[in-house]
Write a structure and sequence with these properties.
The structure is a single chain. The protein has about 280 residues and is α/β, with parallel strands linked by helices. The protein is about 40% helix and about 15% strand. The chain has 11 helices and 8 strands. It has an 8-stranded mixed sheet with strand order 1-2-3-4-5-6-7-8, with helices on both faces. Helix 5 packs parallel to helix 6. It is globular and about 45 Å long. The protein starts with 15 loop residues before the first helix and ends with a helix.
Length: about 280
Amino acid sequence: MNKPTWLKKRLPKEADYENVRTLLKKSRLHTVCQEANCPNLWECFSRNTATFLIMGDRCTRDCRFCAIAHGPTSPLNPREPIRVAEAVETLQLRYVVITSVTRDDLANGGADFFARTVYEIKKKVPEILVEILVPDFQGVIEAVRTIVEVRPDAVSHNMETVARLYADVRPEAGYRRSLDLLRRVKSCDPTIYTKSGLMLGLGESDEEILETLQDLLEAGCSLLTLGQYLQPTPQHLAVQRFVSPETFDKWREIALEMGFAGAAAGPFVRSSYQARELYRTVSI
């Protein structure tokens, strides 16, 4: 299926792209921007920002939509949280998103490592806002308590798709498990904003999208992102349809009318794309 014209991007020419790439290489840090082949990589690096990927660059799961490599994993680097904090300070970030590969091989799915990373960042840059984009931690309740205790400003966990497609798209995850994680975050600390995202174009119906959005609202989710699924390699799931920018605009309007405090929707929208701007819709 050929990509429509609205999915073609011009590469920015700002030198900051190379500055960020060089810093990440020297610091031996990973970003989801690079590992997941994000189409916004050039734009975000050129704006002096990135979404840090902790706990290595190999995932214990093999989701059929994701470009991040899977297993075998390596031991955690105890200095990684400090190096992330130093990079955040060097980049002079005011808002940072921290995500990870899924590490089902670790106790609590690596929640302790998430917590330490948030702690180190806030110790180094006290005024910063920190959003964490977490895996489902296999439904372990104690993992949720661990990440909430360090007081991130937002906790994000992506549903990715509708319930019917989970077996094909996320065979090792669970639709209800993901909803429960978001619900438990709000139960542990109602002041923390929760966020989730969906990819469109995997074969979902409009009715299924609406049902998922309603489920997210009932789980206490405040912020929503909707973006176009793009096939990373021929081995991944094929795109079933390309959603027009006008249709994404309509979905954003629907989400806001349903009760989401903030929503971003568009072909290139990703869960951490312009995350600070979306957070500001609920924090101002």
